[in-house]
Amino acid sequence: MCDLGYKQAKQYVIGDANFIPLKQGTSFVFNNFVGQAGNDLHIDGSARILPKDGGETSGHGMAFVVSDSLDFKGAEPTRFFGIFNSNGSMSTRVLAIELDISLAPELDDISDNHVGIDVNSAVSLKSENASYYSDKEGKKIDMKLLSGDPIQVWVDYEGKTLNVTIAPLKNKKPSRPLVSSTTINLTGILQSRRMFVGFSGATGSIKSYQYVLGWSFSKTMASLQSIDFSKLPKVPQTGSKKKSMSLVLDALLGLIAFLVLGLLIAAYLYRRNMYSEVREEWEKEFGPLRYSYKSLYKATKGFSRNEFLGRGGFGEVFKGTLPRSREMREVAVKRVSHDGEQGMKQFVAEIVSMRSLKHRSLVPLLGSPLPWWRRLAILQDIASALSYLHTEADQVVIHRDIKASNVMLDAEFNGRLGDFGMSKLYDRGSDPTTTAAVGTLGYMAPELTTMGASTATDVYAFGVFLLEVVCGRRPIEPSLSAAKRYLVKWVCDCWKRSSLIDAKDPRLTEFSSQEVEKVLKLGLLCANLTSDGRPTMEQVVQYLNGNLALPEFWPSSPGIGVLTPMALSPAPLVIPSLSLSSSSSNNSSMFITHSVLYGTGR
């Protein structure tokens, strides 16, 4: 085989070329070029039979050449395949079939991967992007001249028609040529009785290796011998390729070692730091106001499902026990979901911002069948907590999610308001309203969609909560009849019928009718359709404690017992609530040449 790459040795030396002078009746086949150099095979420049291992060559591709002389002194050694210069071929007449792997706009090249027919100039008469016609698939298939895979090339000439065909190794010759010209006149090109055929390449800035692995030539199609693919030499690996493969192997082994080491370290750290703390940058401003993960993990028995209490808007809630002095105290631990709809950082930041809030009734609900006096006490506790949030805390706090499932009872059945995931804080004197309408269906004031949340929307929700506790039912009960389905409307209807007391929880036994009716009316007053018609939480506390009499109003008073579409149908504003749940000189002659070429990457 011949290495067609060229290293410039002296000025005006052509690029590597391998030429054979044709004699009458010439026909030959080289299945392997080893030992073929001699009188018949002319090697010019630095072409050699086998390249030195590790040597580097360069080029712009290669060309099959037919010429009437070996005098290429006027050719450029670094481009134009070593057979032309910028003005073409001055001293030698040349026909070349180029396999071009560089794009030269000044030569009107169509791409950096094309096959062309050149006559006395590097500017192709015709060219096509490298491809072959697949008879099996009935279409053209693109090929890459620098793919690294051996390529077959057929050059057929008869009359004035020249056809060039390429295909992958071992493929049959396609029925359609890639490039075809019917205007090639060898008599005009070869103006002598001598003719040389061979291959040539040139140096250049683009690195590549070009090899001729086998070559069959004949003056007639009938005498063209087939190339024996089994005798073709193996393409030698270049030093850079060996080095590249070695680097790839080293990198792969290094990566595997790194991954194994990483897994071992991860396993070690996991076993040692099972309870390690994760502190994010945004936590710094809040100081040490946090429990360690380890303590909470242990308190909930590893967040056991047996300790599961329910699910809220930001995650799951578990029952736990934490030591306090010499005793243990029961706590509710919410494990925040990182993909929660509201965002963990906002939730935690707002909760910690409330570190200055101190009130005996601010803790995480819920009621069960309790006697009247305990229900009234719980209502007073929650009213007091809300009043503190609205008027006494350092900042105005709007809870925005007052409902039964956000109230808990401690061991002494004291009411504790919790779950501040939706709460907002404002400086006093500023507008405390918000633009986001959030809440739970049934507790949401009508002005939420237009005005946003305010202390008055908290009052509305508290009013519904009052009715819920007294009546022992939810704000909306789809299973009940239309008359009883909506709590606020139903309580008002009972009052209109002068049977307000009938709205109470039927499980209540010992109670004061006067107190029950007062709380029911207060619930309707707080749930007034208009915000201006609702009392403040300070007033609510006084009403519940008996320090202030309720204002006079009637079931027919404006805004009393009136529901809005928000309260009557589901809406996308609801947040989750806690739930348990191939020669001659005349025109008639022809030649056929079939070569196997190999090009590998830049």
Automatic annotation (TrEMBL):
Residues the entry annotates as binding ATP: K334
Gene Ontology MF: a single term: ATP binding
PROSITE patterns according to UniProt: PROTEIN_KINASE_ATP, PROTEIN_KINASE_DOM, PROTEIN_KINASE_ST
Cellular component terms (Gene Ontology): membrane
Keywords, alphabetical: ATP-binding, Kinase, Lectin, Membrane, Nucleotide-binding, Receptor, Serine/threonine-protein kinase, Signal, Transferase, Transmembrane, Transmembrane helix
Residue stretches making up the Protein kinase domain: 303-553
Subcellular location: Membrane
SMART domains: S_TKc
Example of a GO biological process term: response to other organism
Class of the enzyme per the UniProt entry, highest EC level: transferase
UniProt key word Phosphoprotein: no
Topology in membrane: Single-pass type I membrane protein
Segments traversing the membrane: 247-270
Protein EC: 2.7.11.1
Record has Signal as a keyword: yes
Catalytic activity: L-threonyl-[protein] + ATP = O-phospho-L-threonyl-[protein] + ADP + H(+); L-seryl-[protein] + ATP = O-phospho-L-seryl-[protein] + ADP + H(+)
PANTHER family attached to this UniProt entry: PTHR27007
Similarity comment: In the C-terminal section; belongs to the protein kinase superfamily. Ser/Thr protein kinase family. In the N-terminal section; belongs to the leguminous lectin family.
Protein name (record): non-specific serine/threonine protein kinase
